[in-house]
Amino acid sequence: MSIPSDTAVESHAFDILGYYEPLAAKAGARGLPNTILDNGKVTCDGTRHLVSSTRYAVNFARAYARKGGAKYRGFARAAWEFVEKTHLHSDGSMTWVAYPDKADDKSQKTYGAAFLVLSSSWAFRAGVTGADSVELALRGLDRFEDATGLLADDLDADGKFSSYRGQNCNMHTVEALLACWHATGDRHSLDRAARTARKFCLELASQAGGWIWEHFDADWRVDFEFHKDNPRDLYRPWGFQVGHQTEWAKLLCQLSLTPAKEAWMLPVARDLLVSSCRAGWDTEHGGLFYGLKQDRSLFDDEKHFWVQAESFAAAQLVAKLTGCAESAEWATKLWNYSQDKFVIKALGGVWRRVLTRDHKPTDGTLIVPGGKVDYHTFGACLDTLI
Question: What is the pTM of this model?
Fold first, then answer.
């Protein structure tokens, strides 16, 4: 089976970004909006979340890296300057959420540090910041490294780690370190990314039957109970996340294209992609479910935009790099499903955020602070263009 063409995928990526260009063109001192309804109405509450701000910067820097042009470079520069002004401090610390009418949230989180590295690396690659910004972001990330070489999730006011350890921030750190290597040629960042991927996809995955569980204790023992009572937490959901298995598969494909390539990477990427798509696919309504139980049976039947997008990217890459016919089938199936159920043609190509099992919107929001500015959808498309 043939996979979606690079031409179609790239065209769709820039259709997505086209939704945000008018917002970027009129963004003022408070940056781009973080809250937009699914009818296109911007809710200007002034809240600015580090994850949203950095992802905007990544999107426009990637657009410039792909297509060039003064427009994208200008948007990338403005988005990155907002990150520097609002979220990244001279000592490497961060503002997690900036509010217009109350004290800012200055929680120190590895997830935020990873996106500061990612956005500074892409900004440097786009020529809108210097290497010193990347170095500062890397120093900020280093604050979270524990004795194992992996990253704890949080620092308290006294600079001490919480007891919680999670895969999500480490996974995005691999993404960030890959971007850093591509931007700067820093081999240490690349080797660090490969080492982290090996730890999660081989060693820690062995604790949970070959897939990557979300939560661990301070000694990196899997914790099957954490957030069982809060299963839909935005950054720390309970259960096996189908989209995180495929996101790791995508990262392994990307690592396999670098000097840090190891023989296990592509076989494990293929296995993660195929097994998670088989277990997570809704055979009645189509699409990948959000969460599965420990035995890989259904737990959370919502359909999330990022799960479909990252799984498409992983399937497309595995098909290209291994010739796996089943991966090609999943790439085509996910592409067609997403175009049918998630893409809002009336808004130019932007994706819906969360749907019920039978594809009804779960609420009236399209963009939410820290949750969606279409970095996943835009980036997933570009990730396949190798």
Answer: 0.98
